[in-house]
């Protein structure tokens, strides 16, 4: 009735609901007493019914006896009352006109209505637990056969609400929080239960009541409760059938032609293809122009064929073992590859670009990569609300629940610098992992429970009900378009074969697979349904099947003509304007990376000032800015200023620069300060680098969540979208990349070899042995060097520019800069190169403020460039034939060596050469240095332990350069931990290897 609706409205404000005692009469009522404060939306159902009636009579005595919200309700109810309204007994009671009724009778009426309202809420909250989700009919998708006690499954359950069988035909007023009545405000209890079961307990189970937003909850209720809302036209049904035909017959065709090949087919969840196409169609209608997708291997070939619309002959030729790969690298198995395709959407007649990202067997690793690429495309299109570019992520049930990167990616979904304004997640819920029962694989009720952390609604749906799936997909698109938030579709299905087609599932799931063998295919069931409805005829259905079979056969014949396997046909992120049509760089040279002094001075001036007026900065920051200004006046730079100049100069050339990671805005070591915060106005900040030039590119610097795996994957995806951007990820400490190792191993190190995918991402990894303990010292350079593909036993021969040719031939670049100028040049070189390679920079900590570690403008002005090695410039270099020892090193240890050499007065006897670029190894320059000091013994000195660091990498390469001169090791002894946690031990180790490095007599007769 309207009074109950008004009451619900009066209680929506939590601030009113939670106020204390009010009133001055004989009775004073506290709105909190006898009411549940745990409910997210206070309502009549949350209050004791007897208390409501008692409060009403108190209000009749004196309106001040109750809280003002109840007073307003009772006044409105009385003013709007009408004896002819049909609200009868309860209405009369609340009007004070039910003189013939006793208070007990009145209380029973209120209690019955409250019970019905509570019942409605129970179905909204827990109806999904009894929904018929499993196509096999043998499992419960929530891992529990328990039926919630507050759902009506028998008369006994009805009695638990104080209702009986005699109440089933009584009409009850519906609350505002339901739409089951349609245009009706009252319904018989029997019909209420029926409609609730239809909405929440059929082939769709909806989880949404945990969402703490009234508008969003009401939106979902309307989509699933409104009577007759899940209706499809005959045209839509025929389209759905045709898409099911393609999905099913594609798998059948592969099974017939390649019965002994792994393909990770989609059998058991064929509805995924029409589901994705529905999502894309409806998204296109809303204005989406580009969709970036990520998925594991199950069903990938089908998605490529029937969603992305890759030519079938290119898919089929992947099965031919006789074909030779024409492209560089190792390639990858067919069910890991991706694809990029622009085409017309036939349902909307609009252009749409589809990109399916390549993904390794690390199933969910692609999630943040997709999000990063989506964010980048939105950025370059100026799509600030996700209206033109969106992402779809597909998951397996076991991986979705089990892999932590899913959680990390969800937590990026609403962060300002990482949000993609809503992702549609589709879980292919096989109800099993490889061989592991879900009861042994997860602790959560559903595999999708992780999505609840961001209040994403979850739509569970029986995958053998295609129309229910299509409706859920429609709602998911509308949700994203309306609220710009994530949403999850849980396709509860089964896996008709084993983990792959060669696997025997009966070993471990005999009961399930006995049922699966009897299970009728969804295509057959849906075709029979439409034929019985008269939507299609049997002949039309058979013609549709024959038509697609013919397409497959023709493509199969055509695939035999493919003599060479081109991985480039499977690029998921092409850069058509960057490379030549054949994929080769447009040149093989790199211009000098220096800048004019005017540009350096201008950037230095902005870096040492505050562009905004009336902006109060911290006093400590004022000293830092004055220090920068002093350096600029002296034509010198430290590490932070060199970075500023590299970034700022690229912005001038319309190169977007993005720096992301934990605390990067200030810098872990309080050296960067790229974001200034007003000390007097909350949330007022300034990014001076965005005030360098008119019409400059945007500089994005963003502190990330405390994630490495997810955030590094995100930035990798961002870097894929365009070659004309410098995308950097900085670890808080270098060894923190450990938890992102999957992204490094699977995507960064081997990405080009597997997927012909260039990527220019930059990893900044603070590194150095400074007595800070084993977890804050080493960025583990040995791991990166082990994965470098340059041959240690072959001296490279190039006809052109040695440096550029060598960089083009490598899989990634590793540097450990010892000067700010080197850091400046290598960042600029990363963009000026005619190709893109990942760049790993082992950045310093103590050198950030070391006075000796500064560079002059002379090392950065026009005509200068990155030095792969820095030769010795001491007196030793003037008489190289007299030098007794050459120490090769990299990074911070140079300054410790130089200081020790000076103290020992050995500057004429010992030369120190720095490797700024470690990989690819600068064979040509090292050879020149070795030949220059022809009478000297060669030492490799590192601060890392012998089994770590660079020694195992450089030793065989030195032998290749000059096999007659062995390279001897000086450094810390082998160890299990990368550094000691004891400061005294650290200093003792340092002194020991410095003494050894300059003890010329100690090495005579020794071999390493």
Verbal overview:
By secondary structure, the chain is of the alpha/beta class. It has four domains: 224 residues, no CATH class; 337 residues, Rossmann fold; 215 residues, 3-Layer(aba) Sandwich (Rossmann fold); 126 residues, Rossmann fold, CATH 3.40.50.11610. The protein has 33 helices and 28 strands. Strand 27, helix 32 and strand 28 form a beta-alpha-beta unit. The N terminus and C terminus are likely disordered.
Apparent shape:
globular
Number of strands: 28
Instruction: Determine Rg (CA atoms, Å).
Output: 35 Å
On the 0 to 100 scale, the average pLDDT is: 88
Strand residue percentage: 5-15%
Question: Numbering strands along the chain, what is their spatial order in the largest sheet?
Answer: 3-10-11-9-8-4-7-6
| Spatial gap, N to C terminus | 92 Å
- CATH class placement of the largest domain: Alpha Beta
Total of DSSP H or I helical runs spanning 4+ residues: 33
CATH superfamily of the largest domain: Thiamin diphosphate (ThDP)-binding fold, Pyr/PP domains
CATH architecture of the largest domain: 3-Layer(aba) Sandwich
Q: Helix amount, in percent?
A: 25-40%
Low-confidence stretches: 1-50, 80-100, 1003-1008
Number of domains: 4
Largest sheet: 8 strands, mixed
């Amino acid at each position: 009735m309207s009074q109950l609706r008004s009451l619900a409205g009066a209680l929506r404000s939590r601030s009113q609901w939670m106020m204390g005692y009010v009133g001055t009469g004989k009775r004073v009522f506290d709105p909190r007493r006898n009411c549940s404060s745990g409910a997210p939306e206070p309502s009549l159902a949350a209050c004791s019914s007897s208390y409501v009636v008692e409060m009403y009579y108190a209000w009749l005595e004196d309106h001040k006896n109750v809280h003002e919200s109840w007073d307003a309700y009772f006044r409105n109810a009385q003013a709007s009352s009408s004896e002819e309204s049909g609200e009868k007994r309860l209405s009369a009671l609340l009007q004070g006109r039910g003189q013939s009724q006793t208070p007990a009778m009145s209380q029973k009426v209120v209690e019955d209505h409250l019970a019905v309202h509570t019942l409605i809420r129970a179905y909204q909250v827990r109806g999904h637990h009894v929904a018929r989700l499993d196509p096999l009919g043998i499992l419960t998708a929530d891992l529990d056969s328990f039926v919630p006690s507050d759902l009506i499954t028998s008369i006994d359950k009805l009695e638990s609400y104080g209702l009986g069988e005699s109440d089933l035909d009584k009409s009850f007023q519906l609350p505002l929080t339901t739409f089951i009545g349609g245009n009706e405000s009252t319904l018989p209890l029997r019909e209420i239960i029926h409609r609730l079961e239809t909405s929440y307990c059929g082939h769709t189970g909806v989880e949404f009541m945990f969402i703490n937003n009234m508008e969003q909850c009401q939106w979902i209720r309307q989509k699933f409760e409104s009577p007759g809302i899940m209706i499809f036209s005959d045209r839509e049904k025929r389209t759905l059938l045709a898409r099911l035909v393609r999905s099913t017959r594609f798998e059948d065709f592969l099974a017939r032609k390649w019965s002994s090949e792994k393909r990770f087919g989609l059998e058991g969840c064929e509805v995924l293809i029409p589901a994705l196409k529905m999502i894309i169609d409806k998204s296109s209608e809303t204005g989406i122009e580009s969709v970036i997708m990520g998925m594991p291997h199950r069903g990938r070939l089908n998605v490529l064929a029937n969603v992305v619309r890759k030519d079938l002959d290119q898919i089929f030729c992947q099965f031919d073992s006789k074909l030779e790969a024409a492209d560089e690298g190792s390639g990858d198995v067919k069910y890991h590859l991706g694809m990029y395709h622009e085409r017309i959407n036939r349902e909307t007649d609009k252009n749409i670009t589809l990109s399916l990202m390549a993904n390794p067997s690390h199933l969910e690793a692609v999630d943040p990569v997709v999000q990063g690429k989506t964010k980048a495309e939105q950025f370059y299109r100026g799509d600030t609300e996700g209206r033109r570019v969106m992402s779809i992520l597909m998951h397996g049930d076991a991986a979705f629940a089990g892999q932590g990167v899913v959680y990390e990616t969800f937590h990026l979904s609403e962060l300002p610098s990482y949000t993609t304004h809503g992702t549609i997640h589709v879980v292919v819920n096989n109800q099993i992992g490889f061989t592991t029962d879900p009861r042994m694989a997860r602790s959560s009720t559903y595999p999708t429970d992780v999505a609840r952390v961001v209040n994403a609604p979850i739509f569970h749906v029986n995958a053998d009900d295609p129309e229910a799936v299509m409706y859920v997909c429609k709602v998911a698109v509308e949700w994203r378009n309306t609220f710009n938030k994530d949403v999850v579709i849980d396709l509860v299905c089964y896996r008709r074969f084993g983990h792959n087609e060669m696997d025997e599932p009966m070993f471990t799931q005999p009961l399930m697979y006995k049922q699966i063998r009897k299970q009728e295919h969804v295509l057959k069931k849906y075709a029979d349904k439409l034929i019985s409805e008269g939507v299609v005829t049997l002949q039309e259905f058979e013609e549709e099947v024959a038509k697609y079979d013919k397409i497959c056969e023709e493509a199969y014949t055509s695939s035999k003509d493919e003599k060479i396997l081109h991985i480039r046909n499977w690029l998921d992120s092409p850069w058509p304007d960057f490379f030549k049509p054949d994929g080769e760089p447009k040149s093989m040279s790199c211009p000098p990376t220096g800048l004019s002094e005017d540009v350096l001075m201008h950037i230095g001036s902005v870096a040492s000032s505050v562009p905004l007026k009336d902006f109060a900065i911290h006093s400590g920051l004022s000293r830092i800015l004055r220090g920068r200004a002093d350096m600029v006046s002296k034509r010198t730079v430290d590490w932070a200023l060199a970075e500023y100049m590299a970034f700022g100069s690229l912005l001038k050339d319309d190169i977007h620069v993005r720096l992301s990671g934990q605390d990067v805005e200030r810098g872990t070591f309080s050296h960067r300060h790229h974001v200034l915060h007003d000390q007097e106005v909350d949330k007022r900040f300034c990014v001076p680098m965005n005030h360098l030039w008119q019409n400059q590119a945007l500089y994005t610097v963003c502190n990330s969540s405390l994630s490495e795996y997810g955030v590094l994957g995100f930035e990798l995806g961002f870097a894929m979208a365009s070659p004309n951007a410098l995308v950097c990820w900085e670890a808080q400490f270098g060894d923190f990349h450990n938890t992102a190792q999957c992204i490094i191993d699977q995507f960064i190190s081997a990405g080009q070899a597997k997927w012909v995918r260039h990527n220019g991402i930059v990893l900044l990894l603070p590194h150095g042995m400074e007595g800070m303990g084993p977890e804050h010292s080493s960025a583990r350079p040995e791991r990166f060097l082990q994965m470098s593909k340059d041959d240690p036993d072959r001296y490279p021969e190039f006809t052109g520019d040695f440096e550029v040719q060598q960089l083009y031939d490598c899989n990634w670049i590793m540097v450990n800069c010892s000067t700010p100028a080197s850091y400046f040049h290598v960042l600029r070189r990363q963009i000026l190169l005619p190709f893109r390679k990942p760049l790993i920079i082992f950045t310093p900590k103590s050198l950030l403020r070391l006075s000796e570690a500064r560079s002059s403008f002379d090392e950065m002005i026009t005509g200068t460039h990155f030095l792969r090695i820095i030769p010795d410039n001491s007196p030793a270099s003037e008489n190289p034939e007299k030098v007794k020892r050459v120490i090769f090193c990299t990074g911070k240890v140079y300054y410790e060596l130089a200081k020790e050499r000076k103290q020992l007065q050995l500057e004429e006897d010992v030369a120190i050469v720095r490797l700024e670029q470690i990989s690819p190894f600068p064979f040509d320059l090292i050879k020149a240095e070795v030949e220059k000091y022809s009478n000297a013994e060669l030492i490799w000195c590192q601060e890392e332990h012998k089994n770590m660091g660079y020694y195992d990498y450089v030793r065989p390469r030195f032998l290749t350069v000059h096999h007659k001169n062995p390279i001897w090791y000086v450094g810390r002894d082998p160890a299990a931990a990368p550094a000691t946690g004891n400061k005294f031990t650290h200093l003792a180790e340092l002194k020991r290897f410095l003494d050894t490095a300059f003890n010329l007599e100690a090495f005579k007769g020794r071999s390493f």
